[in-house]
Amino acid sequence: MAKVLYITANPFDESKSYGMAVGKAFMDQYKTSNPEDEITQIDLYKEYIPSIDADVFQGWGKLQSGSGFDQLSDEEKTKVSRLAELSEQFVEADKYIFVTPLWNLLFPPVMKAYLDSVAVAGKAFEYTAQGPKGLLADKKVLHIQASGGIYSHGPSADKEMGHRYLKTLMSFFGITDFQGLFVEGHDLAPEQAEEIKTNAIARAKDVAITF
């Protein structure tokens, strides 16, 4: 049995979002193919994802200097404990499915906040004499990204920062089993939008069988 995190960063559901519709199709097929797996959905627009701010740095600093957790302020306790929960949940999982739109060449800010919460030294990676080393080499990732334009290839590919950032960070964590599934071009060619969505859903179902 694998532990799976289904992580979405979209304020809309599958009725309004192409990416979310493809993500749902993937998960429906995945559940059918892997009925024993433990799946946890994380809707980043509904979860509490603390920003790494002054409270967090102050709380971490106190703990590192030997202070007890009870010596943190209420704000520090809330934020530091929540970040610890998120990072523990992440490292304990075996597979990750990220579903994001491409906004202004990147994913939504809430996804960056989440990734910051799990990029923890000693858990996702460690520092060594040879440089940083990822600690999650046995994991696997699928990233479903939707965009109105075409950014996975062609003249705009070098402007795309969402998928490339996520792939780079997962590699930093030691994860090399990384796949991308793009739902793109529906704003460039609105007359083909439904076909683009249908084809992406079919691809998602195929990927889900072997993921």
Describe the overall structure.
The protein is an alpha/beta fold and 211 residues long. The chain is built from 6 helices and 7 strands, in the order E-H-E-H-H-E-H-E-E-E-H-E-H. The model has no long low-confidence stretch (mean pLDDT 97).
Q: Layout of helices and strands, plus pairs?
A:
Layout: E1 3-8, H1 18-33, E2 38-43, H2 54-64, H3 74-92, E3 95-101, H4 109-118, E4 125-128, E5 131-134, E6 140-147, H5 162-172, E7 177-184, H6 193-210
Parallel strand pairs: 1-2, 1-3, 3-6, 6-7
Antiparallel strand pairs: 4-5
Would you summarize the structure shown here?
By secondary structure, the chain is α/β, with parallel strands linked by helices. The protein has helices at residues 18-33, 54-64, 74-92, 109-118, 162-172, 193-210, and strands at 3-8, 38-43, 95-101, 125-128, 131-134, 140-147, 177-184. It is globular and about 60 Å long.
Helix content: 40-55%
Largest sheet: number of strands, sense, barrel closure:
5 strands, parallel
The structure class reads alpha/beta
Number of H/I helices: 6
Measured by DSSP, the beta-strand proportion falls in 15-25%
The separation of the N and C termini measures: 13 Å
Shape: globular
Order the strands across the largest sheet as they lie in space: 2-1-3-6-7
Q: Averaged pLDDT, please? A: 97
N-to-C order of helices and strands: EHEHHEHEEEHEH
Low-confidence stretches: none
Q: Give the C-alpha Rg.
A: 18 Å
Number of strands: 7
